[in-house]
From TrEMBL:
Coiled coil: none annotated. InterPro entries: AAA+_ATPase, ABC_transporter-like_ATP-bd, ABC_transporter-like_CS, ABC_transpr_LolD-like, MacB-like_ATP-bd, P-loop_NTPase. It comes from the Bacteria. This is ABC transporter ATP-binding protein.
Amino acid sequence: MNAIVSLQNVTKRYTRGKQTVEVLHDINLSIAQGDFVALMGPSGSGKTTLLNLIGGLDQPSTGSVSVAGERIDGLSGARLAKWRARHIGFVFQFYNLMPMLSAQRNVELPLLLTSLSASQRRRNAEVALAVVGLAERGKHKPSELSGGQAQRVAIARALVADPTLLVCDEPTGDLDRATADEILNLLQMLNREHGKTIVMVTHDPKAAEYASHQLHLDKGQLVGTVAA
């Protein structure tokens, strides 16, 4: 399969006062289209930083990051924002839903950056909610949903613009085991039946078992790859 994500000699440093901290060191990584990858490692190992580089939320200090055949390191803020809207669907630990909006309106949010009409946005949101099993909950606000349902809405929002890549940062970290398994089964279904490429940060070995590959980070370096 073609590589959808390619990182070459990527290093990431942050400056804190007079101190420079190297979070990632000389990362070389290729992720195939249609893969489901779990990024694992201890706290502070660089997992979220690596995910942010892949998702275009941050840029490397040195090295190159290419996603869907486009080199994204060095893009200006405006161009990078347009690129993210077209290619990346984000799923976060705490859902990041707008509390005053219904589930359907939350799912529509990424489509506001497109030229779709209001009726098209509504239809696309309804389809995305149906895919995650919430066709009947579109009018409910986040406060009227369980944690698992809220995360399903967040996944529908990530899917609605048909992105190239889903990036998930601890998507089950705030859920009990049974609900977490439901969300992981959903992600696995999106990968296997809908062909979505997924990169997921998790600290949970049981969650990582749902992925087809596991990448392990330690002290900013990749230390092993495991096929699940």
